[in-house]
Amino acid sequence: MLLTLLLQVAAELSLGKLGAAIGAGLAAIGAGIGIGKIGGSAMEAIARQPEASNDIRTNMIIIAALVEGVALFAVVVCFLAL
């Protein structure tokens, strides 16, 4: 089903545009998974050591911002490929 849909889209568009769209989607999904793992790990760390919650939260926000920045660059590169 999905392969048929992709082949129909590929017939209408060029393969470069299809690749750029898939790449942008994968970058967004990867960033979502990464930030989710960061948040989950930070919550576990805070549950184990509540006294270090401020340091853990600060590091979590910095790392999440870096992941989001890399994802933004990936999406921009994919859109430039269009």
What is this structure, in a nutshell?
The model has no long low-confidence stretch (mean pLDDT 87).
Summed up, the domain count is 1
**Cα-atom Rg, whole angstroms?**
18 Å
Distance between the termini: 25 Å
Please identify the top-level CATH class.
Mainly Alpha
Shape estimate = elongated
| Unreliable parts | none
Q: If you average the pLDDT, what whole number results?
A: 87
**Structural class, from helix and strand content?**
mainly alpha
Query: What percent of residues adopt helix (DSSP H or I)?
Result: over 70%
Task: Describe the structure using short key phrases.
mainly alpha, cell membrane, transport, ATP synthesis
Protein described:
This protein has helices spanning 2-12, 15-48, 53-81. With 82 residues, it is mainly alpha-helical. Helix 2 packs antiparallel against helix 3 (53-81). The radius of gyration is 18 Å and the shape is elongated.
Topology:
Elements: H1 2-12, H2 15-48, H3 53-81
